[in-house]
Amino acid sequence: MSTGTLYGVGLGPGAQDLMSVRADRLIRSAKHVAFFRKAGRSGQARRIVEGMLPSSAIEFPMEYPVTTEIPLSDPAYNETLSAFYAQCTAHVKGLLDAGEDVVALCEGDPFFYGSFMHLYTRLKDDVPVEVVPAITGMSGAWTATGMPVTWGDDVLSVLMGTLPEDALVTHMRNADALVVMKIGRNITKIRNALERAGRFDAAWLVEFATMEGQTVTKLSEAEGKVTPYFSIIIVHGQGRRP
Amino acid sequence: MSTGTLYGVGLGPGAQDLMSVRADRLIRSAKHVAFFRKAGRSGQARRIVEGMLPSSAIEFPMEYPVTTEIPLSDPAYNETLSAFYAQCTAHVKGLLDAGEDVVALCEGDPFFYGSFMHLYTRLKDDVPVEVVPAITGMSGAWTATGMPVTWGDDVLSVLMGTLPEDALVTHMRNADALVVMKIGRNITKIRNALERAGRFDAAWLVEFATMEGQTVTKLSEAEGKVTPYFSIIIVHGQGRRP
C-alpha cells in the first residue's frame, strides 16, 4: 500500500468561485479534510468550503489551544503551540501512512503566513505533499478597493499589525505601496504608525474582501471602528504610468 | 441597448488549472478577448488560455509599439505608450458601447503591476468594469521553491529589478522576505545588490513557475545563466515558528 498525499490547498480570499480550478476539484472529491480553527468556532476555512465537500468526507478540525490568551513573548506560547502542531501532525500522518489522501484547507495562500506551514515543515520530508497556491487575501482586498495597488517600479511592503509601532513607521515610510494584515486589536497602533509615516490619509480598510459583508472604507473615515483581525489595510502605490 | 462589461481577468501564474473558477468560466464563454503582447510574439497571456477560448471568440491582440527600444527616462517612451493605450481604449470602448462584453486577459493578478491597469484607469468611469483577482506570479514562484515565504511577523518586500542598485540594497537589507521581479537584463545588478545586502546565498531563482519548463535554482548556482524577464527571485523569511 502506498502512502497517501497531503494536499495543502489554498482557498483564496473567501469567494468560492475565486478558488482555483485545481483547488475546486480537490475539495469536491476529498475523502479527508483537515482545517485549523479557533475552539468553539466553525472556522473561516471550513465556512469557505460550505456546500462543496462530499457528504462522505471525514473532517478533522484542528482547534488552536491558544490564540491571544498567552502573549507571544511568553515561552509557554511556543511550547503550547508546538505540542498542538505535533498532535495534528501525528493524526494526519496516521491517515497518510494508511494510504489515505488528506486535503488541508488553507485560507489565502498556503505559503504566505498562516498555519499550514507548521504541518508542512513537520511532514514534507516523510510523506508526499502537494501545495496548491491561491489568491491571497491581500489581492482580494486591493481588488475590492477598485484601484491598482502597484505600478511601474513601486515597492510593495507587506506588514503585520503585530509589529512594534516604530518598525511599522520605518517600513511605511520606505515603501510605495503598503499592505497591513493582522489588524484587530492592533488598529490603534497601526493608525498611529500610518499617521507618523504620513500615509494615513491614503489608507483604505477592507473587511471581508470578496465575501458577503465586504466593506471598503477610507481609514480616516473609520474612526473608532472595531474591525476583525482578518481585515486588511491597503495604501496604493502611485508609480509610473503612461 | 445596454453597455457591455469589461472583465479584467487575472490568469494566474500560468498553469490553466490555477485559474480561478470565475476566470475559467469567463474565458470559456468569451465573445471578445483582448490581450497585450510584444509585436511578432504569440504573447504569454494568449498562450496561457490556449485551447480554452470558444472557436467563435474574436481576438484583439494589443501589440506594444515599444518595449525596451526607448529608455524609460526618455519622454518619447511615455508619449508612445500613452498613444498606444489610448488606441486600445478606443477600440475596446467601441465594443462595449455596442453592447458587447470584453474579456481582457491579464497575466498574474490584474491590479498587481502589469498593463491592464492602463486600460482600466481610462475606462472605469465610463463603462462597467469587473476585475477578477488571481494567483500572482510570485505566489507560483514561492510555491515552486517548496518553502513558505513568510512566517509570523516577517516583512515581505516586492522589488522590481528595474530599480537602481542602491535602492535595491536598502530594501533588501530592511525586509525579512524578498520577491524580485522584472529580472532579464537586470540580473547582474540584482545579484550585486543581493550580495551587498548579505542576502545572495539565500536567494532562489524561479523560471516559468507552475508551467512546462519550470526551474528552481539557488541563485548562487545559476552563475552566468541567462534568465527571462518574467523569472522571479525569492528570498524566504525566517520568522517566528513554534
What does this protein look like?
Two copies of one chain form a homodimer. With 242 residues, chain A is of the alpha/beta class. Chain A folds into two domains: 6-132, Tetrapyrrole methylase, N-terminal domain (Cobalt-precorrin-4 Transmethylase, domain 1), CATH 3.40.1010; 137-235, Tetrapyrrole methylase, C-terminal domain (Methyltransferase, Cobalt-precorrin-4 Transmethylase, Domain 2), CATH 3.30.950.10. Helices cover 30% and strands 21% of the residues of chain A. In chain A, the strands form two sheets. Chain A has a five-stranded parallel sheet with strand order 3-2-4-1-5, sandwiched between helices. In chain A, strand 2 (32-38), helix 2 and strand 3 (58-64) form a beta-alpha-beta unit. In chain A, helix 3 crosses helix 4 (116-123) and helix 6 packs across helix 7 (187-196). Chain A starts with 5 loop residues before the first strand and ends in a 7-residue tail after the last strand.
Give Rg of chain A in angstroms.
19 Å
Please identify the oligomeric state.
homodimer
Number of strands of chain A: 10
Q: How helical, in percent, are the residues of chain A? A: 25-40%
Average of per-residue pLDDT values of chain A: 94
User: How would a crystallographer describe the biggest sheet of chain A?
Assistant: 5 strands, parallel
What is the annotated CATH architecture of the largest domain in chain A?
A: 3-Layer(aba) Sandwich
Principal-axes shape call of chain A: globular
Total helical elements of chain A: 7
The percentage of residues in β strands of chain A lies in 15-25%
